[in-house]
Amino acid sequence: MKILTVVGARPQFIKAAPVSKALRAAGHHEYLVHTGQHYDYAMSQVFFDELGIPQPDVNLGVGSGSHGRQTGEMLMRLEAVIQEQQPDWVLVYGDTNSTLAGALAAVKLHVPVAHVEAGLRSFNREMPEEHNRVLTDHCADLLFCPTQTAVNNLAREGITQGVHLVGDTMYDAVLQFGELARQRSRILETLGLTPKRYLLATVHRPYNTDNPENLRSILSAFVECGETVIFPVHPRTQARLAEAGVLEMLQSAPQVRLIEPVGYLDMLMLEQNARMILTDSGGMQKEAYFFAVPCVTLRPETEWVETVEAGWNVVVGADSRRIVAAVSGEAWLAKSLAPIFGLGDASCHIIDILCS
């Protein structure tokens, strides 16, 4: 069986790593296409190096740009690759422009589509990712859901054929690479950090980075918290910090430490040793749960409602007062960790279903 896998952004490399490993171990042919949506070393190549993902068979080199231009370029180039390779399945991950382009290119060519991480809904149509999710799910022939909530979301939209609850491949990845991170990563020593004595923060969603008021509110909360905040700065965010006029404020707050983006193994170490995680990333909300680290979500909603219901995640948006209150320990209802994301064998389930 020949699988054409489409990836293009940091979270997709992580989600794809355990599935790619399982596919190849089962003797199937995987043709790996990198769209080039994320393209610098810290956001792309480092993940292939650390996770042992085979080098892409082709890199489309699309790069950044407006949503329409980027998606259109991917669609054109993916169509040519799919026509040339004639795969049995096109496999897409998550909710990026690469996801949507892969699904559309395949469905136009009558090649079946399998969507890993299907059924997620934030119910916020201002998020480009929400449109990508919905459209991809309605194109897909196989929908691999990480949680029961995702299955229920699809059923409400009338999608019941080809839907499978398999668990979350990011949990597979954490189990596979968590120990490796503890063995290899020296990020805590490099940054002089004591476990559970710092906060870890990431901000990259357009909801925050493209809104100067939101970005200023979030950064002022980081300052007001009075704790060490380790803030790996996404390239998108780096450009917006100066525009939002917050760099001067940060210069007077040395406890807020802006660092370059880090690799996957270093990020796993930072996550599991943080006292708390503050993020607008969907993947980091889950990883916080995997490591039993409280999470403050810097968005007005989350697609990972299970983490909120379990008491490990508080959704606060960009409101500085709510962020500070969450960090100070108010409103936390953390309970035991239920296996809501599966048992770490999602990749095996996916391969079994694809091959059946």
What's a quick, concise take on this entry?
This protein is α/β, with parallel strands linked by helices and 356 residues long. Helices cover 48% and strands 15% of the residues.
Write the SSE topology.
Elements: E1 2-7, H1 10-25, E2 29-34, H2 45-51, E3 58-59, H3 67-85, E4 89-93, H4 97-108, E5 113-116, H5 128-139, E6 142-145, H6 148-156, E7 163-165, H7 169-184, H8 187-191, E8 199-202, H9 206-209, H10 212-225, E9 229-232, H11 235-244, H12 247-251, E10 256-259, H13 264-273, E11 276-279, H14 282-290, E12 295-297, H15 305-309, E13 313-315, H16 320-327, H17 346-355
Helix pairs in contact: 1-7, 1-17, 3-4, 4-5, 7-13, 10-11, 10-16
Q: What does it look like?
A:
With 356 residues, the protein is α/β, with parallel strands linked by helices. It has two domains: 181 residues, Rossmann fold (3-Layer(aba) Sandwich); 151 residues, 3-Layer(aba) Sandwich (Rossmann fold). Helix content is 48%, strand content 15%. The chain contains 17 helices and 13 strands. Helix 1 packs across helix 7, helix 7 packs across helix 13 and helix 10 packs parallel to helix 16. It starts with a strand and ends with a helix.
